[in-house]
Amino acid sequence: MVLTVPMFLPTTAKEIEILGWDRPDIILITGDSYVDSPYVGISLIGKVLQNAGFRTAIIAQPHMDSDRDIARLGEPRLFWGISGGCVDSLVANYTASGKKRKTDDYTPGGLNNRRPDRALIQYANLVKRFFKDTVPIVLGGIEASLRRICHYDFWSDSIRRSILFDAKADFLVYGMGEKAVVELAEALRNGDPVHTIRGLCTISKEKITGFTEIPSFEEVRSDRHKLTEMFHTFYGNNDPLTAKGLFQKQDSRYLVQNPPQPYLTTEELDAVHDLVYARALHPYYRQFGDVKALDTIQFSIPTHRGCYGECSFCAISVHQGRTVRWRSEKSILQEAIRISEMPEFKGTITDAGGPTGNMYGFECERKLKKGSCPDRRCLYPKICPNLKINHSPLIRLLKKLRGIKGVKRLFTASGIRYDLILSDKNNGRLYLKELVNFHVSGQLKIAPEHTEEPVLRLMGKPGSPSLLQFKKEFDALSKKSGKNQFLTYYLMAAHPGCTENHMRSLKRFTREKLKTTPRQVQIFTPTPSTYASLMYYTERNPLTGEKIFIEKSFRGREAQKNLVMQKEK
Question: For residue 81, which phi and psi values (nearest 5 degrees)?
């Protein structure tokens, strides 16, 4: 196979031979196909390790019934790195109603037949089946990050141990992982101690002096109040500036979570994204079909990380963090130029954004110096005055991106926070005008999630008055520009605290106020390490202790969704 150097990491024995390696230092295993993109965690980590001097290879979606994939590159010198993929494998494989998903956007051909349930456990077992007494197994990615402590598992309706224990792995890298995985690789190469590396979870036979002990697996499994106590402590120790190390007894041993790594600086983020990415499916996997995810990410640009929205159902806070970090204009513009020079590029950058599209370029100065506040959120119940909202850096960036030769269109596909736009008295309306005139592909997606105050309060989302004000201003600007554009509303059914009456009220609101019948309604899925999942399991508001209604039957959850989506007779 002839490769376009230096685009792809090797994934076949022939590529290893061409590179002149005797074997890789590190083999990364993923539940996705190998798409070489800065949006794909395993690719980004692989490129970071390669840039640090490690011979890094990838095996994507290995067959589980033989050693034909897992053994094709031999045994790595330092460690196996295992990720379930860009999405938790159970979320990828099942709907919120427990039905098996037929399609998978990260599998060639689109058929959902290559990603096993609980992929981290299955892949770790696969390695150990064919490589006895092998080098360390390291878990990473979002599936590992969100399951690193005892957690409620929706699919088994039970409290499970840390996935580090269930997979019988050696180490777990949590969060975004670039610094931790390089430090771990260097320590293993040099024979140095690894147990003080930040951003790493390990297993110990003893308690750790100076770390905070959280309720044990047995305690949280038998006592829901203990689970709530544990989660508060866990959630409150995710900021690199303030977090303490944690340990938790699980059977006869202890899970140890070191404090998180410092967030990447702008310069460090630039360095990660300035590495060369093919933005394509590796040729070995391309023979099996196209990967649909490429339609979204191939010509998109990640501009920032993190989110201070802290929606109760969202896992970003404990994976990417509550502090927003952004790349420099120079780095982003250089990436756009590289994209514009690709033969396949037709002139459209499909997105330039992050978890929330309009959080680029500003943060709370207090948070940057002292860490996230332990007793308040940045945006709820109202926007904190210490957060000096300023859309001007984003406006400037978008104008420069539009001016790049070959870029005909630049869309904003990342969800935006309309309450931030309305609160920015100096530049919010100017940013909205830029969106309307240049960056909307017919529709702009926003995520109010609900309209009823009791549900919004549990979600941590802004109220409906700001939604209506934003719609009014968006519609007026669209009309003035002569463009037939509209808003797409992402809504949620069966969130903790939500009843059928709430959904009827939402239906009435969307019909009378938004003048639409919603088409983007998802059923709440309890995912590990979120406050909403804690609510779902305990049936209580974790902040007040009050009992709340939880719709747990699949039929009832489907009924809530159907109440909103069915057309009027």
Answer: -110, 120
